[in-house]
Amino acid sequence: MEPELAATSTIESTHSSVVHFTRVHSGDVTGDVDKTVRLFYAVRDGFRYDPYQIDLTIPGMKASTTLEIERGWCVSKAILLAACCRSLGIPARLGFADVRNHLSTERMRRRMRTDIFYWHGYTEIRLEGKWVKATPAFNIELCEKFGLLPLDFDGRNDSLYHPFDASGNRHMEYVNQRGAYLDLPLEEIILTFRQQYGFGERRDEPDSASFDDDVERETRR
Q: Which residue intervals of 27-139 are DSSP H helices?
């Protein structure tokens, strides 16, 4: 088996819930491109983006966990999409980059102390003989609230964040490419988060903080 098709501890392509989700949302269409496009939108819009509730453990990052809790952040949603593709026999891997993200909340800026999002995740999928990038992180409702241009995916062209939002304001800048991985490089991510964000050292915000509530409050201004 190609390594880009193998199930891993997080990319659970053989897990029953992943297999079921993949079967339901790929539907009865034929062709890998059409199936992958359907799965991209199912993951993008079926799971709300939530960067507050990040569980950097193997159980917390599993594709089946994202299916269960019905929310995720860029890395966990990329893992789910990769698992779905592998479940169909379509090679997939995880891609990572450091990005300067102009979409954040006041709470996130206080916590992170920077506008750089390290280890931003997306999915790389091999279709029609080439690798294409798909970024299913921001659900359509979030894009509409923040005035962002939603990321579409046609299975043939890279789906990467726009540098500007719908109003022409800066949105996303890729500052460092980290490459593609067959599985989640969890230890490397944790190390970077500790170094850059003080991850695990500060508990200055309650775990019950709601990203949705913060977005709703800040976008009403």
A: 32-46, 58-61, 63-69, 74-87, 106-112
Determine which helix (DSSP H) or strand (DSSP E) holds 18, and give its type and residue range.
Answer: helix 16-26
CA 105, 61, 12, 71 dihedral sign is: negative
Strand order across the 92-101 sheet: 130-134, 116-127, 92-101, 172-181
Angle at alpha carbon of residue 140, lines to 71 and 122, rounded to 5°: 60
Of all helices (H) and strands (E), which one includes residue 192? helix 186-197
pLDDT tens string for the chain (221 positions)?
699 999 999 999 999 999 999 999 998 898 999 999 999 999 999 999 999 889 999 999 999 999 999 999 999 999 999 999 999 999 999 999 999 876 678 888 888 888 889 999 999 999 999 999 999 998 988 888 877 778 899 999 998 876 555 666 666 788 999 999 999 999 999 999 999 988 765 444 445 678 878 877 877 75
The structural domains of the chain, ordered by start, are 7-197 (3.10.620)
Q: Which residue has the tokens 């969890």?
A: 186
